[in-house]
Structures are given as structure tokens and as C-alpha cells.
Amino acid sequence: MSTSDDLYAVADFCLIPMGTGEPSVAGYIAECQRVLEKSGLKYKVGYGTNLEGPWSEVSKAIHDCHLAVHAQGAPRIATDIRIGTRTDREIAPGTGNEAKVKRVEDILSK
Description:
Blueprint: E1 8-18, H1 26-39, E2 42-46, E3 48-54, H2 55-71, E4 76-84, H3 96-108
Antiparallel strand pairs: 1-3, 1-4, 2-3
InterPro entries: MTH1187/YkoF-like, Thiamine_BP, UPF0045_domain
Protein name: Thiamine-binding protein domain-containing protein
Pfam families: Thiamine_BP
């Protein structure tokens, strides 16, 4: 583990705006993506969002997404979050999710 007390976190979260009166939430998710872009953390949006970096920065980015989506008019937000950390080896910043996918692809290619 690094000398920092801040764990490196690989997170997957799904932010769900509620009570918007609209069937589409794309505009709210786009606003969250703007927040993530400004955070400087590595992320990938799909059916949910993968986000990685120091634990405190990851949790702040999710918090800031909530603030931004509420500011867009969503009165309620539900968010499911899964966060993984490990201390048995160093993870180069920005490679946590890619390394997991590559490992599975390597196994499948054998």
C-alpha cells in the first residue's frame, strides 16, 4: 500500500434521478459526466459509471454529481455504489478497471 492513508478505489456507481416527471434521464447523466470530467479522475460511462482514483476524490466526485443533478431540478436521487480497494499490490493510477478487463481477456484468449 502507498504511504498515503487514502486508499486507491475502483468504483462502479449508478445514479438514478427520481421525481423528474420525464422518462429520460440522459440530461441529468450528462451533467454528472461534466462533473466527472472536471474531477480529473478516470471514468467510463455505460449502464452505470466506472470511476477510479483516491477514495476521497472518488467519493467527492459522486457527491458533486448529486449536487449537480439536484441543481438541474431532480428532487430525489438514488445511487447504488460498489467500491473495491486492495492493499496487496500497487495499482498505477487510472489502470484499475483496464487491468481487470485485460486479465479476463487474457484468460479467454488461451
